[in-house]
Amino acid sequence: MAKRQIAMVLDLNKCIGCQTCTIACKKLWNTDTGTGYAYWNNVETLPGAGYPKEWSGSGGRTSDGEVKRGQIPTLDGEYGRAWSFNHDKVFFRSGDGGEKKPWLRPDRKAQWGANWDEDLGAGEYPQENHYFYLPRLCNHCTHPACLDACPRAAIEKREEDGIVLVDQDRCNGYRFCVEACPYKKVYFDPQRQVTTKCIFCLPRVEEGVAPACARQCPGRLRFVGYLDDEEAPIWKLVHKYGVALPLHPEFGLEPNVYYVPPMSPEKLDSEGRPTGESRIPMDYLVSLFGSRVKDAVKILEDEREKRKSGNPSELMDLLIAYDWNESFALESNRKEVI
Q1: Sheet hosting strand 245-246, strand order edge to edge
Q2: Handedness of CA 36, 41, 46, 50 (dihedral sign)
Q3: How many domains would you assign to the chain?
Q4: 96 found inside a domain
């Protein structure tokens, strides 16, 4: 158990699916040749299959707290092997000029990949179609299954901040951690034969700077801080108001990345008139965030109406994030670092 736990809250009502967080993470941490398919941070479109494909529920813990056996995604299947494009033929072709210019296309028939089903929604258009974005990263769980699954004791949870790390000098590449993680946020580097995963931008956090995915987010939807800091947005969103919820709490790992659930416009009838029924089915949100999501959505709706009527709402002001720097309460000098 960690003495303190750093956490992140993501407001799904503000995510526009721009993938800026994904690129920030990828450029900073996944430059090795064996991590081409690894996305420590990615943004999925829901309802959708996600990345890796159909990731949820393979692993975790039993009701007795034991680590469950799961599946290991494959490059050609659930991850999708990377492909390249015919740039040479399109932009640098040679010949007598009589050849018809080819279209830009992949060099092979791809089956799956990151963002494969991006912006694909559910429901009938235009009355009830819907989708929303879900950014995902390692949850740095309170009870990480990856840690207990490793026979080499190569995974540790830091006592001072709860960040979960892999000691790659000890890792033998068995991939039991990949199998055990039900969120499938542990990756295997086939070149170096070791496990890799999100480290919550540890070198930045130790300098009092928020992770790159949070600092680069143009939507101001990410909050970073310690769960026991009652003056910071994290504690207020998770504990005071209870509107920030973990993803799939039924996995039994107590994740420390939380989500403010998405609110949605009303469905329309055949005449285009609002019906009063939310487009995103509540049952679907319950399947993601548990039964507490019903209360969270109700609180969000009530506080939004309070703010619209001209009354103060600390919760709405927190979520709007007027002062971006206040979203990152790391109790250190808040440096302006990109």
Answers
A1: 245-246, 257-260, 6-11, 222-226, 328-329
A2: positive
A3: 1
A4: no
On whether residue 93 sits in a domain, the answer given is no
Closest by CA to 186, choosing from 35, 50, 69, is: 35
pTM for this model (two decimals): 0.92
Neighbours of 119 (CB within 10 A): 10
54 domain-assigned: yes
Angle between helices 293-308 and 282-289 (to 10 degrees): 120
Burial class (CB in 10 A: 0-12, 13-18, 19+), 159: exposed
What domain range includes position 278? 6-69+121-329
275-324: per-residue pLDDT in tens? 989 999 999 999 999 999 999 999 999 999 999 999 999 999 999 999 98
Query: Which amino acid is located at 144 in the chain?
Result: P
pLDDT tens by residue, 94-116: 555 556 778 888 877 888 999 99
Tell how far CA 195 is from the center of its chain.
Answer: 19
CA–CA dist 58, 124 (Å, integer): 30
CA 160 to chain centre: 23
CA-nearest of 143, 186, 136, 187 to 162 is: 143
- What does the block give as tokens for 125? 């258009």
Specify the CATH number for the domain of residue 304: 3.30.70.20
- Tell me, yes or no, whether 165 lies in a domain: yes
**What does the block give as tokens for 148?**
């207990």
